[in-house]
Amino acid sequence: MSAAVTLRPQDFRAELLARGLLIPTGVDGLYGRSETFEGLVAAVDALIGRLAAGDGAEIMRFPPVMTRQGFEASGYFRNFPQLSATIHCFCGDDREHRRVLSCTAEEGGWTAAQAPTDIVMTPASCYPVYPVVAARGRLPEDGWLVDSSSYCFRREPSVDPARMQMFRQREQVCFGSPEGIRAFQARWMQRAMDMFASLGLPAATDLANDPFFGRPGELMATGQRSQRLKFEILVPVSDPGRPSACGSFNYHVQHFAQAYGIQDAAGEVAHTGCAGFGLERIALALLRHHGFVPADWSAALRRVLWP
């Protein structure tokens, strides 16, 4: 394990910036990426793709925004308002434009006339998948599997480079029966543990819950844990004492199927689950544990990433 593991989160970020792996923008949690960093993310993405290749999943790729209607149906804002973000635009005429340009900072400045549009920032790469699948009608007899990916946004400004506001997720989204979803969840957890072992990363699984908002959220989090609906794979990244979730394996029961009207082949409300990976976090974990120069990594590790 590299001596870089002893760095504090802020020191780790400073080193990433100093080496040009991440590019500062002046906003915590928002970074540009260098050619080296992008190459590493692409290699991690391709590795996950090789693990999924035999499953026959439908490939879907989305931009970092989704429809406001689809977002509202998910219930995300109800549960995670602190992470949500909408897209606002100017919708006025020339007169309104001139008025806004003259607004002081106290009056809201140029943003004073911004209004919400019909799109919002995507919070997880699986979210745009559900309305698409729902619109097709009933699922096939054996259910359905989608391989999705997109940039995602969550409003969490932080000096921790592993907690970015804009990041990429690669997810496998499963539609079917309770037994099928549980088997899918277990299969991907084992695949992920094997993958992290092949990358030389110290990973561990743990029961988890989502960061639900407010007092009602505490009850929801407790229920999620008691039903063993969410597991994470944790790897030390920015803080060796507080590992970060690099993989998440979730059984949604019928939440999304009810929200979007997704039916199984018999016309009953389907069950869904997902297995997701944070691509930047895995890339950062590799840099943290193996050093900041991928060209200097062991031949065995490089063969895993660049076969």
TrEMBL record:
A GO term, aspect molecular function: ligase activity
All copies of domain Aminoacyl-transfer RNA synthetases class-II family profile, residue ranges: 152-307
Pfam families (alphabetical): tRNA-synt_2b
Gene3D superfamilies assigned to the protein according to its UniProt record, in alphabetical order: Bira Bifunctional Protein, Domain 2
Transmembrane as UniProt keyword: no
Keywords linked to the UniProt accession: Aminoacyl-tRNA synthetase, ATP-binding, Cytoplasm, Ligase, Nucleotide-binding, Protein biosynthesis
Keyword Repressor belongs to the record: no
The name this protein goes by in its record: Amino acid--[acyl-carrier-protein] ligase
NCBIfam families: PRK07080.1 (NF005479)
InterPro entries, alphabetized: aa-tRNA-synt_IIb, aa-tRNA-synth_II, aa-tRNA-synth_II/BPL/LPL
